[in-house]
Amino acid sequence: MAECLHQWTMTNVQFGFVVFEKCFHCNSLGTYFTGEDTPILGDKYREGDCYWSRVENAQSIRFDLECSLCGRLEKFDDLMGLMHCPGCPADCEVDAIRKKCEAERTWILVAFGFIYKDKRGPLPQAKVDILTDYFNQRRDTSRSRIKIVSFDLIKDLSVCRGDFIHDVGMLSQEPLMERKPLF
Amino acid sequence: MTTKDLIDKIGLRPLSTFEHREVNGVFVSDMLSDVMAGAKSGNLWLTVQTHKSIVPAANLVDVAAVIVTGGKEVPQETIDIASKYNIAIMVSDLPTFELVGKLYALGSFAK
Question: What is the DSSP string of A58-124?
């Protein structure tokens, strides 16, 4: 039996917030998705030795992809979001890929998994590839293409100045180099 | 209907540099996540947002153009990024409601 040439469609779309929280004991960062109407900034709770406080909310979506041909469902509840790489002064592999691909009109986006106590959640390469396929299937690829890479390729998150495709800070117009780091 | 036709017919002001292309529908939203979920390749995206983050969202879903409504001023940084990615950014002085009415009246992609 021939292998299915998946045609992905977005399904199980849930609107909500990606919450960024910080531990004021060990300074760790954590992120998660919530479907709450309005997560309250500054909300605090204790978890073991950590004292977590919500420091940022970003309106976002959670979704799965389903193949319209074979019905395969690929869950993306571990996807925190996609980030646009504007290029950094840092020596970063994502920036190197970006420069190479842009010459071929292939635009790079970075897929982030959720973060817990500074540990980056795993986002298997197979799922990153499915995301790339899905967004290319949604576009006119004779004009340009999308390539999604994993955030593991970012050399140093503390200097990353990427832009998440999240609804946050939309009124902020500060120059790129003066913006505070993401993490 | 192409982006060039729309400039001629409803007086959109192009800000970025881009190649003209076919337009096949209209999507109205001021939320990036909404655009990511619902906009289709070749759509016009009508919004009041001007932040540079609209460009990667528009690029991700391959909209034909971003139309900033209400005559809002678009920061040069947004225009520069859009030009780099061949994304059409255009401005209409009309509020969103009136522009939608004009687009609907054009008929060819109103569904």
Answer: EEEEEEEEEETTT--EEE-TTEEEEEE----SS--HHHHHHHHHHTTTEEEEEEEE-EETTEEPP--
